[in-house]
Amino acid sequence: MRLHHVQVSCPRDGEDAARRFWSDGLGLVEVEKPPALRARGGAWFRAYDGGAGGGAVVAEVHVGVEEPFVPARKAHPALLLDSVAELDAVAARLEALGFEVDLGERHTFDGHERAHVRDAHGNRVELLAVA
């Protein structure tokens, strides 16, 4: 068994804010939703092992419209980055975009360094790197 994707929610018309976080901030590539699902709104994002659009899919996040919308405060996806340097670079990019990155638990997960951030809609996201 393997994980295919995770889904987080956004309010109606929240797609542009989701793009700012997932694409501009984290560097995931937006992919088209299947035609049968497009009318629902939302957006899908992928990370590839070869960079932007190249290689195998290594992470997929679906941002779906939910009404009424309530952000996930505890439940969260955790994305594994390739290095601590990448973790630092992504954290800096997110901060430059105005997202608050929490490093308070950076050294609380054995063998990893981590950061927590809230996406554009307040959903919790964890970023990990092997230390």
UniProtKB/TrEMBL annotation:
Keyword set includes Oxidoreductase: yes
Organism expressing this protein natively: Nocardioides marinisabuli
Species lineage: Bacteria, Bacillati, Actinomycetota, Actinomycetes, Propionibacteriales
Name recorded for this polypeptide: Catechol 2,3-dioxygenase-like lactoylglutathione lyase family enzyme
Keyword Oxidoreductase carried by entry: yes
Residue ranges of every copy of the VOC domain listed in the record: 2-130
GO MF terms held by the record: dioxygenase activity; lyase activity
Assigned keywords, A-Z: Dioxygenase, Lyase, Oxidoreductase
Record field: transmembrane: none
